[in-house]
Amino acid sequence: MRHTARTRWPLLLLAAPAAVSIWAGWVGLGTMAGFGVVYPLPGIADTFKLNSAITLPIGVEAYSAYALGTWLTSRPMPRAARLFAAWSSGIALLLGLVGQVVYHVLTTTGHATAPTPVVVFVACLPVLVLGAGATLHHLLGDPADNPAERDVRDTEAVAQPAATNPVPAPEPAVERTGVAVKSRRPVRRKPGKSRQPAPRRLEADYLVQARAALTDGVEPTAGWCQQVTGCGKTLSFALAKTLRTEQAQTGRGTEMPTQTTTDDNHEKNNRQEEAA
User: How many whole angstroms separate alpha carbon 68 and alpha carbon 89?
Assistant: First the structure.
């Protein structure tokens, strides 16, 4: 606070005589242009009166200082508000300068009342000040609603839009038993083409198939049963034994004891290996 007071006292010293001169010039010009004592509260406070000439220095010069401070401040604000404050503060200062010149010219030339163009000019000033102040306030916006946008002097420096084909974000990981595993998308299958697990074939099914393929004169060996039915090696020996037993009972086929003994030995060895 002390530092601020020390640095601002030259500004107060410069503003004091300027304020006296500007106040006197605007009040005098307003009196020449028809501004004077009015009773703003009739029926409420009939004795209260106000010299409307003070509206000129308060309105015009106050807006000049407000717009000038908005333009030169370093705080972030919308670029449109800063631009409006820049040129409107210049215009307001220019109007204040013209008003002071007109007042002193009319005074030195002995005019008691201002000419019609000057009256029109002075009468429009309060309305112009009100419109400029309201516009600047709305351009600044409410910082509680929307965060202020920083100034961008070069429009090309604005952030470029996102790429046309952005890179897809990685799929979120799903924790399962303490291990992060990527969630997999469910596979869509066409209707009517769902895969059903094939039913398990029993020994009886293989035996029926082998019987249908067995003809007279064919020796049902293990290799033949495996080739015809596509069964496993162990099951082929069982099928061959059953078919030979049936042939012996019905009297079909030709006995081949050597081959039978060989198949029995193979089957016996195979079972011994599985048991081991």
Answer: 5
| DSSP letter for each residue of 18-53 | HHHHHHHHHHHHHHHTT--EE-SSTTT-TT--EEGG
Token pair, residue 245, equals 């037993």
Q: How far lies 132's CA from each of 63, 123, 195, 264, in Å?
A: 8, 16, 77, 114
8 Å CB contact between 29 and 122: yes
How far is the CA of 26 from the CAs of 38, 63, 129, 263, in angstroms? 17, 14, 14, 131
| CA–CA distances in Å: residue 191 to residues 78, 194, 195, 272 | 58, 7, 11, 49
**Mean pLDDT for the chain overall:** 75
| Separation between Cα atoms, residue 207 and residue 212, nearest integer Å | 9
Distance CA 85, CA 92 (A): 10
Q: Are 148 and 78 in contact (CB under 8 A)?
A: yes
Q: How confident is the model at residue 83 (pLDDT cuts 50, 70, 90)?
A: very high
Smallest CA-to-CA distance from 35 within 11, 59, 18 is with 59
Strands 37-38 and 173-176: unpaired
Per-residue pLDDT of 224-263, as tens digits, reads: 887 888 887 788 888 888 888 887 887 655 444 444 455 5
Convert the pLDDT of each residue in 42-53 to its tens digit: 888 878 888 888
**Contact partners, residue 51, CB within 8 Å, separation at least 6:** 27, 35, 36, 37, 38
